[in-house]
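User: Sequence in, structure out. Go.
Assistant: Echoing your sequence, followed by the structure tokens.
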Amino acid sequence: MGMKQNSSRKLLKEISRKPHFINSSIDKKLVGMGTSVQNIVSSLEIDSDDVRIIGIKGIGGGGKTTLARSVYDHISNWFEGNSFVENVRAVSNSFGLKELQKQVLKDVLNDQSVNVTSIYDGKNMMKRMMPCRKALVVLDDVDDTEQIEALGGELTWLKPGSRIIVTTRDQQVLVAHGVSIIHDINLLSYEEALCLFSRYAFKKEIPNQGYEELSSKVVHYADGLPLTIKVLGSHLCGRSDRVWEDAIERLKTIPKDQTLKRLELSYNGLENDQKEIFLDVVCMLKGSEKDDAIRILDSCGYYAEIGLSVLEQKSLITISDDDRLSFHDRIEEMGWNIVRRLYPNKPSRHSRLWIKEEIEDILVNESVSFSLYER
């Protein structure tokens, strides 16, 4: 027992020495989360032999995924098997929970031959196989208790010492599953926000000389939300004073609660073909492999590789470790709003369609209209 306690103290000591915990493969701009990381690791009590599940909850764009990833990266060596399941809500809706069950089993068991034929089959496999390895599993962006049940199983199915971390916007999901330890994600303080913004806008800890007041104004309007700060910082990086002034004037006209409009400043700064690529990616290519997306976009006459690179530089999209296109829900929502807002109640006039029911309805109605016209 003394050896386990020493291991836990050693880990916490390491965290306290490195409050920002920056992992170059995840987020080079991690700011203001040192205390939160330490608190979460402390609540996990990795020296304990019980099986434990904790929650991280907060608004979209608040840094839940970044925080969970930071904790995961720095304690995973204490476990025999690890799985970080991203975008649970979106992926389960698109591909089904059984694909995510397969991911968890492959990761934790380190066995790429695992196959899951149904959710029921996946649960049985977890019950039978998961007890053999002390596991760390992160379920990111959960919005239904069914997802936790399918991917985490019963706590009794896991080997003693295993830990599950769940991130969500909805605290009730955690409460309904019986999660008693729930961490709130805190928005950044002014000082932390200014530091994060400076790292994106100036590639250093503080604003360039002469830009202190302008930076302060941008940070004020971003209102502590990390995603907004990152996007605005990327948008203004290397821009002229005139662009800065114009962006700030626009921000002044946007109510504080309208985050999407603030993010849209970055979209407005794109070239026309980059805007088209962005809307295609957001509406139809989420989760696609980068090479597949480039082939599709190139066939539409775009210079896709350059365009995707620009979108990534501006923090509008990210390329995941498995080379797939992803982006934050707020970015997705912004793109959808751009497509829909001219004709919000007339999908047939939208430039892009991605909802199955709308597509089917339009195909049926257009077919009927054409038939009547022919007569």
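User: And one key feature?
Assistant: The mean pLDDT is 85.
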